[in-house]
């Protein structure tokens, strides 16, 4: 397993010899036991890379070795602890709260889904913790890098790799 290492204090991501700035949650980092839905905190720990979601016309699939798929209209991610599909991909519209994966900004043009709180999901312990594109500001709990850095990293990532947030 190769690991993307995120230093939450320094706001730096390292992958082998490659290092780059990254954004983390507006609430900083927190212990996994303290993570709560909506707290803006990036959870410490090691999370498997589950797969990649790409926005058509905004990202390329060439060279990606992780499982991937195109994001479609109506794709969302449940962030409602009362939803039986909490912290899972869902179809919109929905009776429960869910994040739209086709955002107005470019942050979700490339999403690497992290295996945080997904085996199985514990309601209220955090959802939609992704590795995505930076918008030049802190995230809601994800890790984000500039587009050029993400496009450089994506072809190097493979099944079994993970992200460690320290």
TrEMBL record:
UniProt keyword Transferase, yes or no: no
Active site location: 132, 142
Superkingdom to which the source organism belongs: Bacteria
Gene Ontology terms, MF aspect: transferase activity
CDD domains for this protein: YkuD_like (cd16913)
InterPro entries reported for this sequence: LD_TPept_cat_dom (IPR005490)
Annotated L,D-TPase catalytic domain residues: 1-166
Keyword list, A-Z: Cell shape, Cell wall biogenesis/degradation, Peptidoglycan synthesis
The keyword Transmembrane belongs to this UniProt entry's keyword annotation: no
Pathway: Cell wall biogenesis; peptidoglycan biosynthesis
GO BP term, pick one: cell wall organization
PANTHER family: BLR0621 PROTEIN
Protein name as it appears in the record: L,D-TPase catalytic domain-containing protein
